[in-house]
């Protein structure tokens, strides 16, 4: 039974890692349109995207430490978006923040009224479509190369932390 649970956790984490990596290395521009609650992995999806627009009702958090876990995979994404100091605040405190705070911390690009979210995301799509696809793809590749390590390597390292924490006594208690 325990072996099956451990294997299921490993497979789930590997799937999440593949999802984040696919979003990050896509030659296409990815745009998050976030509203309501985006917690943990959901907030990680917002951080994985190239651009993010949020409804003014967005609540976002990385609460893993409050549950005995490590926000390992999403930490790779968060640090790229907000820098080290803010990433530490987000993942070490695990607090829920609102849309305006997420904007101030550079987790999202724009905040709009909830009823304008899809229109604002569509406006971003139209703007992206004005760029040449090859130039966009090469620019995204350049941005990844300019990072200290490519995202694939960072996510692979983070997987070890995620799995170790997942099977800790603190995680069981959390």
Mean pLDDT: 92
**What percent strand?**
5-15%
The geometry reads as globular
Q: Give unreliable regions as ranges.
A: none
Helical amount among residues, as a percent range? Answer: 55-70%
Q: What integer value in Å does the Rg equal?
A: 17 Å
Order of helices and strands: HEEHEEHHEHEHHHH
Widest beta sheet: strand line-up: 1-3-6
Tally of helical runs? 9
Major sheet? 3 strands, parallel
Protein structure class: mainly alpha
Q: Count of DSSP E strands? A: 6
Distance from N terminus to C terminus (CA atoms, Å) equals 20 Å
Descriptive overview:
With 174 residues, the chain is mainly alpha-helical. The chain has 9 helices and 6 strands, in the order αββαββααβαβαααα. The longest helix is centred in the first third of the chain and has 24 residues, at 2-25. It is globular.
Task: Please describe the structure with a list of short key phrases separated by commas or semicolons.
174 residues; mainly alpha; three-stranded mixed β-sheet; 9 helices; globular
Condensed summary:
With 174 residues, the protein is mainly alpha-helical.
SSE blueprint:
Blueprint: H1 2-25, E1 31-34, E2 37-39, H2 41-48, E3 51-55, E4 59-61, H3 72-82, H4 84-93, E5 97-98, H5 99-104, E6 110-112, H6 117-128, H7 133-146, H8 151-166, H9 169-173
Parallel strand pairs: 1-3, 2-4, 3-6
Antiparallel strand pairs: 4-5
């Amino acid at each position: 039974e325990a072996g099956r649970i451990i294997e299921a956790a490993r497979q789930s984490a590997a799937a999440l890692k593949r999802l984040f990596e696919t979003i990050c290395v896509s030659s296409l521009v990815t745009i998050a349109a976030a509203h309501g609650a985006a917690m943990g992995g959901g907030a990680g999806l917002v951080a994985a995207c190239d651009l993010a627009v949020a409804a003014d009702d967005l609540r976002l958090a990385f609460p893993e430490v409050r549950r005995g876990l490590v926000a390992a995979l999403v930490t790779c994404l968060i640090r790229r978006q907000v820098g080290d100091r803010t990433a530490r605040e987000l993942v070490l405190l695990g607090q829920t923040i609102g849309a305006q705070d997420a904007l101030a911390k550079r987790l999202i690009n724009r905040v709009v009224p909830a009823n304008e979210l899809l229109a604002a995301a569509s406006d971003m799509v139209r703007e992206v479509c004005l760029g040449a696809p090859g130039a966009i793809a090469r620019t995204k590749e350049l941005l990844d190369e300019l990072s200290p390590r490519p995202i694939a390597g960072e996510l692979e390292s983070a997987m070890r932390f995620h799995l170790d924490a997942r099977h800790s006594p603190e995680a069981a208690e959390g």
